[in-house]
Write a structure and sequence with these properties.
Keywords: Endonuclease, Hydrolase, Nuclease
Shape: globular
Order of helices and strands: HEEEHEE
Family: Belongs to the UPF0102 family.
Pfam families: UPF0102
CATH topology: Trna Endonuclease, Chain: A, domain 1
Largest sheet: 5 strands, mixed
GO molecular function: endonuclease activity; nucleic acid binding
Oligomer: single chain
CATH architecture: 3-Layer(aba) Sandwich
Strand order of the largest sheet: 1-2-3-4-5
InterPro entries: Restrct_endonuc-II-like, tRNA_endonuc-like_dom_sf, UPF0102_YraN-like
Number of domains: 1
Amino acid sequence: MTTDRKILGALGERLAVTHLKKMGYKILEVNYRCKLGEVDIIAYGDNTYIFIEVKTRTGILFGRPIEAINHKKQDHMVRVALSYIKAKGLAQCNYRFDAVEVLFEGRKLSEIQHIKNII
């Protein structure tokens, strides 16, 4: 991954965290890592643990950001989430998988969209 893409991704994650906080979610983890991989954001709200993938793009020429969350990525999110749930002793909790799309037009933020229940 190039440095520009890393910077864009990190900016998208920071904007997603701010957006989720404004919506009333409590942010528990950012870039949660375990031996199985990483989830961008783990939040809590509505009595539910929410595992969130953030996708940031500078346009939609190649499709919406959410289209990059394929079955392989979804399976990865589930494995990491189950590891987190086990590690934290949350076996009886409610949980779901969401995405946040962050779109820029040039250097200007054009859209942030929170999409619930992507899996």
